[in-house]
Write a structure and sequence with these properties.
The chain is of the alpha/beta class. It has a single domain, classed as FAD/NAD(P)-binding domain (3-Layer(bba) Sandwich). Helices cover 38% and strands 26% of the residues. It has 13 helices and 19 strands. Helix 1 packs parallel to helix 10 and helix 10 runs antiparallel to helix 11. The longest helix has 31 residues. It starts with a strand and ends in a 9-residue tail after the last helix.
Length: 395
């Protein structure tokens, strides 16, 4: 079996590692000249860390990451905190793994190093995929220089604007949601003492929210602030921003938010894209993975995790049905599509929960938070996510 993976991001690298560990030949085609990630923070919940432990990279990543002592809500204008749920000992006791906040380049490097240890020539950089096709016995991708790379199956792990998806299923690029996320990475020493706590904070308010948490062994603070009612004219999905525009977007918010904005050495604007879950993502010997299959808004903190889960389940299916590649891909899709669709819809639903107009004041926020974010509704929305096991789920 030879699997060709279009895309060398977190999902593609996870799939490559899981396949190599099962004795499958892999080629990873990455269009960039080097494997780099935009410096940003991501959250890896217990289900993701369970998968990373299965792959043998969890302990390496854990040493480089942070394990916040708690997660809390804070009201946008007064800063009043409400505890959300315990991310420390309770997560380990309940789900077997911690909830880590991770510097995305650290995650990609851990996966890349593990892949290269198993196959020095697996990753082909500077390889931009422009097309894909298949016949009864193989599937191929075409690169921009005309080269064809052929395997038993092709997996599109090429992101939200997937060439593989658009070639096989027709153009279906996601739409701009009307929301922009401001992202900054702040050296921890540049923040006042009261903002250096190892806590995951979600500031919620009418029409926007902001998230902060520590990264990279506590040396960085991740700052992401999302605001509604924006327009987007840039050609790509990111654009440099100014502190002045960000301050204006969050006028009236607590002074701590403006401290984060001022302290950010660089601010990037990210267009948040939305797309309904795809009804099917497998066609014969071609399938999709991660954002190519199920792009999601980042409001359930599962964007990287769902791609990690995909990679392991895909490898299991290919190992179990190696004699019938098309059946293997069908089994993989069936195992994943209901869960990932629920993830996408859950993230969309959280938009209103984070941006509710009921958050205009403490008096109105108190009953709202009790209704939407007390223990019972939180358990209903998150237990199914965190208890999932990529190794035992049926394929």
């Amino acid at each position: 079996m030879h699997v060709v993976l279009a895309g060398g991001g977190v999902g593609g690298m996870t799939a490559a590692l899981a396949l190599l560990q099962r004795g499958v030949d892999v080629t990873v085609l990455e269009q960039a000249p080097a494997l780099t990630e935009v410096g940003a923070g991501i959250q890896i919940s217990p289900n993701g860390n369970r998968a990373l432990d299965h792959l043998g990279v969890f302990e390496t990543l854990r040493k480089q990451s942070c394990d916040p002592v708690r997660k809390e809500f804070r009201l946008w204008n007064t800063g009043r905190p409400w505890p959300m749920f315990d991310l420390g000992p309770m997560a380990v006791e309940r789900y077997g793994y911690p909830y880590l906040t991770v510097y995305r380049p650290d995650l990609l490097k851990a996966l890349e190093d593990a892949v290269r240890a198993l196959g020095a020539d697996v990753i082909q950089l500077g390889s931009r995929v422009t097309g894909v096709d298949q016949d009864a016995s193989s599937a191929s991708v075409v690169l921009d220089d005309g080269t064809r790379v052929t395997g038993d199956v092709v997996i599109g792990a090429d992101g939200v604007r997937s060439v593989v998806r658009n070639t096989v299923w027709g153009p279906s690029n996601p739409e701009f949601s009307g929301m922009v996320a401001w992202r900054g990475l702040i050296p921890m020493d540049d923040l006042p003492e009261h903002l250096r706590a190892p806590v995951g904070s979600t500031w919620i308010g009418p029409g926007g929210h902001a998230v902060t948490y520590p990264l990279h062994g506590g040396t960085l603070m991740n700052f992401v602030a999302t605001i509604e009612g924006k327009t987007w004219t840039a050609a790509g999905g990111t654009d440099p921003g100014t502190a002045e525009e960000c301050h204006a977007d969050f006028a009236g918010w607590h002074e701590d938010i403006h401290t984060f904005i001022t302290a950010s050495p660089r601010l990037l604007k990210w267009a948040l894209l939305s797309r309904d879950p795809i009804p099917a993502w497998t066609s014969g010997r071609i399938s999709l993975l991660g954002d190519a299959a199920h792009a999601t808004l980042p409001f359930l903190a599962q964007g990287a995790v769902h791609a990690i889960e995909d990679g392991v389940v895909l490898a299991r299916a290919i190992e179990d049905y190696a004699d019938d590649p098309a059946e293997a891909l069908t089994r993989y899709e069936v195992a994943r599509i209901q869960r990932t669709s629920r993830m996408v819809r859950g993230a969309t639903a959280n938009t209103e929960r984070f941006h509710s107009r009921e958050l205009v004041s403490e008096e109105r926020a108190e009953p709202y938070l009790q209704r939407e974010w007390s223990i019972e509704p939180i358990a209903d929305r998150y237990d199914w996510l965190y208890s999932y096991d990529v190794v035992t789920t049926p394929v």
